[in-house]
Automatic annotation (TrEMBL):
SUPFAM superfamilies: Bet v1-like. This is SRPBCC family protein.
């Protein structure tokens, strides 16, 4: 896979499995993320399993939009990932990788831009973000900091 368009990493004082459990719980992840605000499961499959789909509800200031995501990776304590589309057009891939380190783990959150060039202006108009790489780098840093605080506070 190519290098991500935006990513960040943080050390967390918790086992990779514990951090994975929080990230793969989409309701709890919404409490930590910058733009992702919640979800609704689509179809019969529910939970963090490969193939499950969810409608993501997103917000940035007064702007609101939704996406459709499919979970592609659900390996407890190792990786959680999903592909995002909007009106049937690829938007992004999001991935969380976990690796044991000392008494805790390292978490890497990554995003790969998938929007075709023709879709960037319409989608940027909806979200209000014209430089997705820059915005998501900042969003990832904020999300990982909240993740660390939430996980370590629960220990």
């Amino acid at each position: 896979m190519s290098e991500p368009d935006a990513s960040g990493r943080i050390e967390v004082s918790a086992a990779p499995e514990a951090v994975y459990d929080l990230v793969s719980d989409l309701g709890r992840l919404a409490d930590l993320a910058e733009e992702y605000a919640g979800h609704r499961w689509v179809g019969p499959t529910r939970g963090a399993v490969v193939g499950a789909r969810f409608r993501g509800h997103n917000r940035r200031g007064l702007r609101r939009w939704s996406t459709l995501s499919t979970i592609t990776d659900a390996d407890p304590g190792r990786r959680f990932g999903f592909e995002v589309t909007s009106i049937g057009v690829p938007v992004a891939r999001w991935q969380y990788d976990f690796e044991a380190a000392g008494d805790g783990c390292v978490v890497v959150e990554s995003m790969w831009e998938r929007r075709p060039a023709w879709f960037r202006v319409p989608s940027s108009t909806v979200t209000g973000v014209w430089n997705r790489r820059e915005a998501n780098t900042a969003n990832i840093a904020a999300t990982l900091a909240r993740l660390k605080t939430a996980v370590e506070a629960s220990r």
